[in-house]
Amino acid sequence: MAQEKPLLTVENLSVEFTTDSGVVKAVDDISFEVAAGEPVGIVGESGSGKSVTALTLLQLVPDPPGRITSGRIELDGIDILSKSQAEMRQIRGDLASMIFQEPMTALNPVFTIGNQMTEVIRVHRKVSKKQALQLAIQMLDTVNIPSPEKRVKQYPHELSGGQRQRVMIAMALSCDPKLLIADEPSTALDVTVQAQVLKEIHRLQEERNMSMILITHDLGVVAETCKRVIVMYKGKIVEVAETKELFRNPQHPYTRTLLDSVLTLRD
Amino acid sequence: METIQYAIRKLLYSIPLLFGVTLIAFTLMVYFGPDLTYSLLGKSATPEQIESVRKQLGYDQPFLERYLMFLKEVVTFDFGNSISTGEKVSSILARTVPVSFAVALPAFIISNVLGVGLALIAAYHRGKLWDKSVMVFAVVGMSMSYLMIVIAFQVIFSTSYGLNWFPVQGWVDPIPDYIDAGFFETIYYYWYYYWLYVTVPTLTSIFVSLGYNTRFFRAVIVEEMNRDYVRTAKAYGIGNGRIMVKHVLKNAMIPIITRIIISLPFVIIAGNLVLENFFGIPGVGLVTYDAITNGDLPVVKAVVTWTAIIYVFALILTDIAYKLIDPRVSFTK
Predict the structure, then answer these.
(1) Highest averaged pLDDT of the listed ranges A183-187, A196-200, B130-134, B321-325
(2) Domain map (residue ranges) of chain A
(3) Chain A within 8 Å of B237 (Cβ-Cβ)?
(4) DSSP notation for B77-138
(5) Cβ of A155 and B328 within 8 Å?
(6) How far is the C-alpha of A187 from the C-alpha of A216, rounded, in Å?
(7) Do you find a cis peptide bond into A65, omega within 30 degrees of 0?
(8) Residues of B in Cβ contact (< 8 Å) with A182
(9) Residue A38 — φ and ψ, nearest 5°?
């Protein structure tokens, strides 16, 4: 890899939450980079700050109670934290997209798939409703949803969990983002469906040469899809390593514990 | 098609319900309602006179017989004549129901639309100044007695102590015969007097119901705003206004519609009972109020029956509205 400027640079980022029992540092002074076209995994247990990190990248942390206390995020040359919410709206879904954990509830139950997909496309692209629908159908086809012309007229509850997550992926990629943030994209799915959805994400990431941040608590998921892994623990980054290296030779004791927990499950 | 089938099925199911309502209402009227014999005869009546009046009123029949007679009236929608005025009940209703709708409808529509609007604003600015101002206003509106507001509004709008813009009470009279009004003059006349008489009752009614509506709608909307699909919409760059009005509002519509439709019979009948009485509006509320105080059973029976029927229709309408809003609702189960 040539030494070009990374697509995403995060420097000394800290995020605090104000709760009834005082201020909690959800993310504590973390720095990392993601190169263009690189898939990076962030792993850690629940509450380790990985989801908050992801939300912060798009300024989606609810404020209050959340507050970004320090740091800099540069995405494709844009200083994210200096942008207003209105300016962020241009970026969300366009330059960077996000996939969420719960495909059951992440889509709006009272609008059709087509309606929701075209809405996103039309926020970012100047196209007619018809063209947007055409693009939506094309995207559904790309994520291997059978008979997409029929699916766009259906409501989320008429699709299976795996299909819904595919719809989310199609929606996320519909405006050709340079960065895809996938927050536990497979956790809520059946084991067999999990593998399919992950394979899909992996394939699309490689085909489109997108940068990706894959957030998960499952090291197995990371091993299959990511080149580099960031391990987070209690809001701090405890280890960054190439995936192979991490599995072979984990440096931090927490990483070792994490790896052990995976192995015991597999044995 | 499915909808029509469902509506018919629901109507059939509602027949036993209507029987139940009429039975309870009738039992209450017979055992707890007033006995008209003495008020008709006065103090110095002979036992024979009493006997004959009781017979005339049908009081000597056994309960079941009287109930069956009532049922016959219900089925034929013919409730006979009012005891106090002798006018046919059906013609009383035909005269008064439109007036009641004319009074209740503007307030009903405005207070619900305004309630949803204010609730959206309050929910969107949750915890901030806007939210708190709206909620303080709502609580104040809820805490004040209906009667006090009626009097206060009458003083403010209709007396020389206040603005003196509107009449204290009354209702539109037909155009006097000696005036030869053309088409546009007639429309102008009714339009002018309609708003002259309806404005203060409408404002009163809005003031009373707006607080309740806004609080309820706000709670529903705030709950919807915490759903995952809202976060998804945000993460894809959809504007806040659009999220509120399109995504959140449509999802919140189910509880909102339920409340609006279920409140409809209350607003038209019960709400107007007080309102029409205080503003001297000759609507069905005023007639009902008089009928209850005078023991005018035919009128009470008719109003009770019609209310029950409207209620059943309103409930069926609610179910159909659910289906239109939420694709997950199915009629077939």
Answers:
(1) B130-134
(2) 8-266
(3) yes
(4) T---B-TTT--BHHHHHHHHHHHHHHHHHHHHHHHHHHHHHHHHHHHHTTTSHHHHHHHHHH
(5) yes
(6) 8
(7) yes
(8) none
(9) -100, 130
pLDDT score of A263: 56
Say if the Cβ atoms of B237 and A98 lie within 8 Å. no
- Which chain B residue has the Cα nearest residue A173? B236
Q: Does domain A8-266 have CATH number 3.60.15.10?
A: no
Fold of the B2-33+77-325 domain: MetI-like fold (1.10.3720)
Q: Which of A93, A102, A157 minimises the CB distance to B235? A: A93
A111/B238 CB distance under 8 A:
no
Residue A99, beta-bridge partner list: A182
Those residues whose C-beta lies under 8 Å from the C-beta of residue B317, and which sit 6 or more positions away, are: B261
Say if B227 is an interface residue toward chain A (CB within 8 Å).
Answer: yes
Categorise residue A10: left if φ over 0, alpha if ψ from -120 to 50, beta otherwise: beta
| Model pLDDT, residue A1 | 46
Q: Rounded mean pLDDT of B302-319?
A: 85
| Separation between Cα atoms, residue B60 and residue B66, nearest integer Å | 9
The per-residue pLDDT for A262 is 67
How far apart CA B139 and CA B131 sit, in angstroms, is 12
Question: How would DSSP label each residue in B235-288?
Answer: HTT--HHHIIIIIIHHHHHHHHHHHHHHHHHIIIIIIHHHHHHHHT--SHHHHH
Question: Do B322 and B260 touch, CB atoms closer than 8 A?
Answer: no
Contact across the interface for B238 and A109, Cβ inside 8 Å: no
Calpha distance B65→B322 (Å, rounded): 42
Contact B235 A97 (CB under 8 A): yes
The two beta strands, A228-233 and A39-43, are parallel
Q: Is the pLDDT of residue A76 over 60?
A: yes
pLDDT digits (tens, 9 = 90+) for A158-176: 998 889 999 999 999 999 9
Please write down the long-range contacts of B73-76, taking CB distance under 8 Å and 24 or more positions apart.
B73/B301, B74/B18, B74/B22, B74/B301, B74/B305
Identify the CA nearest to A39 among candidates A211, A203, A176.
A211
- What gap in Å lies between CA B310 and CA B314, rounded to an integer? 6
Three-state DSSP state, B168:
coil
- The DSSP line for A134-197 is HHHHHHHHHTT-SSHHHHTTS-GGGS-HHHHHHHHHHHHHTT--SEEEEESTTTTS-HHHHHHH
Contact: B229, A98; criterion CB under 8 Å: no
Residue of B nearest to A121 (CA): B236
